[in-house]
Specification:
This is Protein SCAI. The chain is mainly alpha-helical and 347 residues long. 50% of the residues lie in helices and 9% in strands. The strands form three sheets. Strands 6-2-7 form a three-stranded parallel beta sheet. A two-stranded parallel sheet has the order 1-5.
Length: 347
């Protein structure tokens, strides 16, 4: 009887109240992992699955109750904010695990936000909404750079420039000084990115390169090592970079990943209409868990080595990352035979 009363009372709670409770819960959990460094993987994994579970519930709930929520005052930018955060979660998990499926899912959600123009309405009347759109474009560009989606990077750079010009006319120009530097960084980065990079990928490609079994045999060492982790650092003064991704670390990042079969030749990617992402004109239903990389991944390839990227770290920070991520006992003979690559670019 008490259970029936409990269910009855929960059913009487307004849909909007349930939604905003979920939003508050998701915001609280998201804030716990947003600023965690990428090298704290074990600690992050626990948080990731908890916060992702909440955002999955939130996304599903707003899909199933869209009309009621819109009538209660739900705005399109709020839907886009959820999708953008899910994309941000996926990219963060990719940076910690180097699993390409997370990177592909991040692209799916970001591309859906872009094509649906979730942040468009009222953007030039609300400076906070304009900054939200600018941050979204900047994050999406990072995903596209790592995915080698040069066509989309070009499109996003143009959108960022136009949006910044409009924001300067609509608001105080001083509010957008830092975004001028962001535009300068990505423009310099693209200019420094050699033209021959468009000819073939830097990383190993099962389409273009010989199968590992066809390569010349190398005398087997007594102690076989498997590359498991890579620590990529850059110290050059005034180096070409976008955000904290320098050109040197970007090239190393590309070299340390396997190219999924056929992905280099897949020019279409996600359809601009949102078909394939599972997101319709009104934003529902949401993207599927596996989509973009499902048909091009090669299960025979080994997993990507996990990578940590540090931009101009202090000695203390560098040593802290090494000790945290690579305990000293991995270097002893009685441990699994794994290799660690330390890449330092600097003068």
């Amino acid at each position: 009887m008490s259970q029936q009363n409990s269910n009855s009372s929960s059913n009487n709670i307004p849909v909007s109240e349930v939604y905003w409770t979920l939003v508050a819960k998701a915001d609280k959990k998201f804030s716990k992992i947003r600023d965690l460094p990428y090298y704290q993987r074990n600690r992050y994994d626990t948080y990731f699955y908890k916060v992702f579970k909440v955002y999955t519930q939130l996304w599903k709930f707003q899909q199933e109750n869209r009309q009621k929520l819109v009538e209660a005052g739900l705005k399109r930018w709020e839907i886009g904010d959820i999708a953008s955060r899910i994309g941000q979660l996926y990219f963060g998990q990719y940076m910690r695990t180097s699993e390409a499926s997370y990177l592909s899912e991040s692209y799916i959600f970001y591309e859906a936000v872009l094509t649906r123009e979730y942040f468009k309405d009222g953007m030039f009347q609300d400076v906070n909404l304009s900054n939200k759109q600018l941050r979204f474009l900047a994050r999406f560009m990072t995903v596209c750079l790592v995915l080698n989606r040069h066509d989309m990077v070009f499109q996003l750079v143009n959108q960022l420039k136009m949006l910044l010009d409009e924001c300067k006319r609509a608001f105080q120009e001083n509010d957008f000084k830092e975004w001028k530097l962001v535009v300068q960084e990505i423009v310099k980065f693209r200019k420094a990115y050699p033209a021959f990079m468009n000819i073939r990928p830097l990383r190993y490609s099962v389409v273009l390169d010989l199968h590992p079994d066809c390569l010349p045999q190398v005398v087997e060492a007594k102690r076989k090592l498997r590359l498991r982790d890579a620590l990529l650092c850059s110290y050059h003064p005034n180096e070409v970079k976008y955000s904290e991704l320098t050109l040197d670390t970007f090239r190393m990042l590309q070299c340390l990943e396997w190219e999924p079969s056929g992905s280099f030749y897949q020019t279409g990617g996600v359809p601009p209409s949102g078909v394939g992402t599972g997101i319709g004109q009104n934003g529902a239903p949401g993207p599927s868990r596996v989509n973009y990389s499902q048909d091009i991944s090669d299960p025979t390839l080994p997993p990507n080595p996990r990578k940590s990227i540090l931009y101009r770290p202090s000695v203390t920070n560098y040593l802290a990352v090494e000790v945290f991520k690579y305990p000293f006992n991995i270097f002893y003979n009685d441990t699994p035979k794994v290799g660690i690559l330390l890449s330092r670019a600097g003068d």
